[in-house]
Fold:
Amino acid sequence: MVIKVFLASSSGSTAIKKKQQDVLGFLEALKVDYAPLDIACNEDNRMWMRENVPVEKKPTNGIPLPPQIFNEESYCGDYETFFDAKEDNAVFAFLGLPPPPGSKKREVPMEEFNGDEHTEEVEAEVGGETGEEAAEEATEEDTAAEEKVAKEEEEAVEDTEEATEDTAPVKQEEAQEEVEDEEAKGEDDQPVSEEEEELRQLEEEEDE
Structure:
């Protein structure tokens, strides 16, 4: 199978020349055998190209512009479709050629796409599991937070009760101390009164 690239060697369009150079340069880099066919100097090449480009691929004026690429007589595409295949790393599939051993891994887009889809599915599954686990963890955290708040409230109530209990004995002790002080004061006052009476009695006896 020979790749045919229809070119216009004497084209005055810089854009067309650049596109033709891009296609040929990339085919040479891939070591793809191709046959450049000039439509500017060969009327048969130009007529054959115009007749074999599919109608849906022709511009509105019906005259396709080079470069146009064929695999034998099977139409591959123009520069835009070639560039898209190049970007998708599927040039050999675009040309209808089996990839060489050196570029087999690079030129298996369907397998790569399937691998990507499989990876996405796995990631989606893992993401779903992760989402469920995250929800469970969030619920556990909320429950733990509620339990912590309840525990803190219980501790606060217990602290208040303990503080009340501690305060009551202190007040009782203070009241008891006051009573004892009053009693002691009363006892102190009583001996003083008896002494005064004894002194008074002694004074009265002396006076008599």
Summary: The chain has five helices and four strands.
